[in-house]
Amino acid sequence: MPIRLGTGLRIGAVTAAACVAATLTLTGPAAAAEPRPDNPNGATVAIASNTVAPGGTIAFTGTGFVNDDGSGSVVIVKINDGAIRDSSGSDIFAEVTAADTTGDISGSVTVPADLTGGGHWLRMLTGAGAGDAVRSVHTERFTVAVPVVPTVTLATDAVPAGTSLSASGTNFPASTTVTVKLNRGATLTTFTTDAAGSFSGEAVPVPDDTEAGSHTLNFLAAGGVSVPVPFTVVAEPGGASTSITITTVVSDTGALSLRADANSVLLSNPQVSPELDALVSTGALPTVTVSDLRAADPGWSVSGQVGDFTGAAGTIDGKHLGWTPELEEAAPGQTVVAGSPVAAGTGLKSGATLGTAAAGSGRGTAKLGAGLELRMPTTVAPGSYSTTMTLTAI
Fold first, then answer.
1. Is 120 part of any domain?
2. Which stretch is the leader sequence (predicted)?
3. In this structure, are residues 137 and 124 in contact, taking their beta carbons and an 8 Å threshold?
4. Which domain holds residue 59?
5. Residues 166-191: b if buried by 16+ CB within 10 A, e if exposed
6. Is it the case that residue 135 has pLDDT exceeding 90?
7. What is residue 250's predicted lDDT score, i.e. its pLDDT?
């Protein structure tokens, strides 16, 4: 049954960080002074990245740091020709021994947490060890900056299939196309960021055939930006039905008799109420025929009462079943009045009047009916439930 209970059940925002940083915010002092002249003596060096966060590490490699006898040199590494020092006051940030024959080196340097700005470099030096050739060579420049990470926020992270999610984002590349995919597969929508690299309230449709459960939206943009955002497709309630067995107990009052056209009623599959506070099933009471052949014509009254609904999945309080009585047919000369409606919640558990005939106007045959409404709590477990209604004529 198509009841969308998940929409709006959760309130709040869900934010996912990008897999890669798209831009960098540069802070701190101006670029460092120019490097001293190199004396590479056949050595070359490189760094793995031109950006690093404060307190982060930057990897380096090199080759050609080999002595005349084929042994590898001892290489010390400084930042900005020794102008930068670590927390202990040392200007040496790494010391590695090059491989014999090739003079290859590799390692990493942890930059100080208070180092910022652009134009920094690593200086590799040899010659301090016995027999080491003297070399001095610097890497290309790098920037120390706090990365600005693209983020996406969903207005809600739980929706039924066939609806839409509202997405907003910041720190994306400016004026660029963002492609949204479902589980890195089908493209759901595309849109363009503004000049600040932001977007707001973009509708992302969730296909009708998306299975209930956990999924991921992937927001993709130029420069390798990929922001994964988890969300949940809410399962629609399904398969629950409610049935009742209605039994008529006829009082032995002689010429006053009572009969129901059927001895069972199957209510409709529950539907969520417009207020989203109940599951509602409806049905109709089988026609109840009242026959009064008593000559004294004392009048009569027919009432109904139910117990709790029970089933393998649990119990539903009988007070949740209400009815709206109606007079379907009356004989000439009869004055028959249908009982007052009884709302679900007050219910038929305490008994209620289906119809009455006053003294002097009840002789003959009348037919009564009623619309039934069962308003169950939304917490009722799926399953089949039944109860017995007792109809009594006096």
1. yes
2. 1-32
3. yes
4. 25-146
5. ebbbbbbbeeeebebbbeeeeebeee
6. yes
7. 43
Question: What is the rounded distance in angstroms from the CA atom of residue 262 to the CA atom of residue 247?
Answer: 9
DSSP symbols for 50-100: SEE-TT-EEEEEEE--B-TTSPBPEEEEEEGGGT---TTS-S--EEEEPPT
- Say yes or no: 257 and 362 in one domain: yes
Are 61 and 123 members of one domain?
A: yes
> 217: helix, coil or strand?
strand
In a domain, 5, yes or no: no
**288-321 burial by CB neighbour count: b if 16+ within 10 A, else e?**
bbbbbeeeebebbbbbbbbeebebeeeebebbbb
**At which of 209, 234, 259 does a domain end?**
234
Enter the pTM of the model. Answer: 0.39
- Which of 146, 180, 195 terminates a domain? The answer is 146
Res. 275: pLDDT tops 80: yes
Using a 10 angstrom Cβ sphere, with 0-12 exposed, 13-18 middle and 19 or more buried, the burial of residue 31 is exposed
182-228 confidence digits (pLDDT tens)? 999 999 999 999 999 999 999 999 999 999 999 999 999 998 899 99
Report the number of distinct structural domains present in the chain: 3
Exposed e or buried b per residue across 54-84, where buried means at least 16 C-beta atoms within 10 angstroms of its C-beta: eebebebebbbbbbeeebbbbbbbbbbbeeb
Residue 119 lies in a domain: yes
Of 158, 300, 174, 175, give the one whose Cα is nearest residue 215: 158
Report how far residue 53's alpha carbon sits from residue 58's, in angstroms, rounded to the nearest whole number: 9
| pLDDT confidence of residue 235 | 83
pLDDT, one tens digit per residue, over 64-107 is: 999 999 999 999 999 999 999 998 999 999 999 999 999 999 99
